[in-house]
Structures are given as C-alpha cells and as structure tokens.
C-alpha cells in the first residue's frame, strides 16, 4: 500500500486465558510458564466427551441479552480497543465506525443450552448474529458484518476492514476475533483425533494435536491520514495481505502446502518486500501433526537459509487454538512485538521435530529489532491468509 492509502492500527483490546486486557496479556505472554493459561473444563456437559481439556477464561464478560459467550468476549475486547484508540463515547462524534467480527462458532453456546434444556434441534443462533448484538451495544453505525470461515476468520475480517476503509465506507473499523469454546466444537475436534490430552505444543516432536482456547482480540483500523488528523497513536501499519482457498479437503491442508506457500509469497510481493525484510514470524502453529509439518516446510521454502535468523513466536502454546479468533490474536501480538522490539517465548516446545529448522524462542523473551512481522492463518476448507505488518509509517 502506498502512503496515501496506508491502513494503520490505532487501538487494541483483549480478553483471554492470560488476562483481561492488553497489559496483562503481554506480561503473561513473556513469562516462561510451564502451565499456559487456565485449563478449564467446568463449562462442559461432559456426556460423550472423553477429552474436556481446554484453555478457558475464568471471568467472562457480560453478554448482551439473548446472546452468548463470543458476544460477551467481543464486547470486553472492543471496549478496551475503542478507548485505546480514543473513539469511544463523545470523542467518536462525527466518525462512522464499522464493525467486523471473525468467529468460527459464534454464540453456539446459546443453542447448546437450549437443546440441552429440551429445545428443538435447530435452537440457537448462527455465528452471524454476533456482529448485530455487539454493534448495537457499541453504537457502530457503519457497515457491520461477521466472517465465519473457520480458523482464519478474523484475519480475513482485518483484510475486509481495510477494503472498507480504502473504499471510504467508514472512518474506522473495529475488528474483533472472538470465540467461546462449546461442547459441539470440543466434540468435533475430539472426533477428528485433533486434540492433545496434555498441552498445546506447536512444532514439538511430541505433539498429538491442539487444545482449544477462547476469548477475543480487538483492533481498531483507520486510514493513516485520518488517524494523523485526529492525533491518534499508531501501533503499526498493515503493509499487505493475500488469501486463497486450496479446496483440497474439508479439514486437512494440502500435504505439499503449495497454496499456503503461494499466499506468503503473494503477501511479500504486494508489499514489495523480499523474504529478507521479515524480522519475525507469528505462525498458525496449531500443534496438529499435518499443519505444523506443512507450515514448517513452506516457511523453509519461502525463507531458505535466512529462516534460522528469524525468530518465531508460536502463541498457541500459551493461548490454545482460538479458532476464528486466532488470526486477530496473532496480529495483535505482532503489533506488540513491533512496539517493544521483543519476541515472547513459547512453552511446551522442548524437543522439536527433526528437519523443523525454525528459530523458536524459548525461556526468556528475545530482544530483537522487529520492524516487519509475517502473520499466518490457515483454516478448514483450505482458507489460507498471510498478512504483513510493520511499524508506524
């Protein structure tokens, strides 16, 4: 993107197993803690579930009437992000604020409770109701939409938000990735044999699957010129993004990773960067066998000999897999890395798979000159996205 059309991030908010705001999240992410987050299975009706292990949020936000966990999380994170950006309350007067939600299951817990109480099989809302309920609470009067293409949903939402801003449809867009773990989602991953019974350990040779996590990450996106006019603090710039769908399998990626590799190369090309310009990577890194092996292979093909010099921050080792919220968590983390020139350590990764030649940060956080970060998000159905963010323009 050229300077006249730069998209910047001016606000951030979060609620997750590591904390209820950005400062607490960032502190916890930097700790070398062998017990990531809070493992919480109390919210499940465990009938027919053998594995109820997940990374849950102890204190949830109050959801709007008639909605569920994803809407409640989204509100907590969005309010922090809007305060941070200075567009909450009276200060937002005269601005058209849009809302973009990325979620996999949305408020599926509403339907689960209704069905367990004897309601009809179709009881409950689709994921797309989250944006409506949250927009009403926040007073967003611009375009409002929900994207629900599984685990890359919120990164896709960021890209759509950028397009809204470039088209002049809004002055600011609040982008939220939000997910609430439910019995149906947990059971689905269990039936696919995609859950680890001990921990989420991306790229580790002992990994046996992922663990689900919940919460929300929110980001405020604006045009750079508009942010400058109102004196907003800028965390970073969205330099480029690319997406495709490999249409290979409902849940498994192509084993050769060709389409996921293509979006990485396309994102670099759109930003007019070569692989040597990337200073850190936040991978998709779920802990599942195929995903991690494929992503490791394609990173090595894209970055070649330089890969060993680029630190990798695999945040799902502490957060679990946030499904539709995962991309927003990764992007928010990348912005904090840019701000503080710091790469947080991963946990549960102690013996990496032979041939996986990534530069994992373990133990203490790594001070590093981070100027540009690559963020990956892959999803069921082959929905691939890569995004590159840089420091303030």
TrEMBL record:
Residues 4-391 form the Ketosynthase family 3 (KS3) domain. Pfam families: ketoacyl-synt (PF00109), Ketoacyl-synt_C (PF02801). Keywords: Transferase. Pathway: Lipid metabolism; fatty acid biosynthesis. Belongs to the thiolase-like superfamily. Beta-ketoacyl-ACP synthases family. This is Beta-ketoacyl synthase N-terminal-like domain-containing protein.
């Amino acid at each position: 993107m050229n300077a006249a059309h730069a998209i910047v991030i001016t606000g951030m908010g979060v609620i997750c197993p590591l904390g209820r705001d950005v400062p607490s999240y960032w502190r916890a992410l930097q700790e070398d803690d062998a017990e990531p987050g809070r493992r919480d299975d109390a919210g499940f009706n465990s009938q027919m579930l053998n594995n109820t292990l997940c990374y849950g949020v102890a204190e949830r936000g109050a959801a709007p009437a008639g909605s569920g966990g994803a809407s409640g999380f989204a509100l907590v994170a969005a309010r922090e992000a809007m305060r941070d950006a200075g567009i909450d309350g009276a200060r937002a007067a005269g601005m058209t604020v849009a809302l973009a939600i990325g979620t996999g299951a949305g408020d599926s817990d509403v339907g689960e409770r209704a069905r367990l109480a004897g309601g009809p099989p179709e009881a409950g809302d689709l994921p797309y109701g989250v944006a409506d309920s949250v927009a009403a609470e926040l007073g967003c009067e611009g375009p409002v939409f929900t994207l629900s293409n599984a685990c890359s949903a919120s990164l896709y939402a960021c890209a759509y938000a950028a397009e809204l801003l470039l088209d002049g449809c809004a002055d600011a867009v609040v982008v939220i990735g939000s997910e609430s773990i439910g019995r149906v989602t947990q059971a689905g991953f269990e039936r696919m044999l995609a859950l680890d019974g001990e921990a989420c350990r991306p790229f580790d040779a002992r990994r046996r699957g992922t663990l689900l996590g919940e919460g929300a990450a929110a980001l405020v996106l604006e045009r750079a010129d508009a942010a400058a006019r109102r004196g907003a603090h800028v965390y970073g710039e969205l330099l480029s993004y690319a997406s495709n769908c490999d249409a290979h399998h409902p849940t498994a990626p192509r084993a050769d990773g060709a389409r996921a590799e293509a979006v990485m190369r396309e994102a670099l090309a759109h930003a007019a960067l070569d692989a040597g310009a990337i200073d850190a990577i936040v991978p998709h890194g779920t802990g599942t066998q195929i995903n991690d092996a494929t992503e490791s292979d394609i990173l090595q093909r894209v970055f070649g000999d330089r890969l060993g010099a680029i630190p990798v921050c695999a945040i799902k080792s502490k957060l679990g897999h946030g499904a539709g919220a995962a991309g927003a968590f990764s992007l928010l983390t990348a912005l904090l890395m840019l701000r503080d020139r710091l790469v947080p350590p991963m946990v549960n990764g102690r013996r990496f798979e032979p041939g996986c030649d990534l530069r994992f940060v373990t133990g203490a956080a790594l001070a590093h000159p981070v100027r540009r970060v690559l963020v990956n998000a892959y999803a069921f159905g082959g929905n691939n996205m890569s995004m590159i963010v840089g420091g303030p323009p």
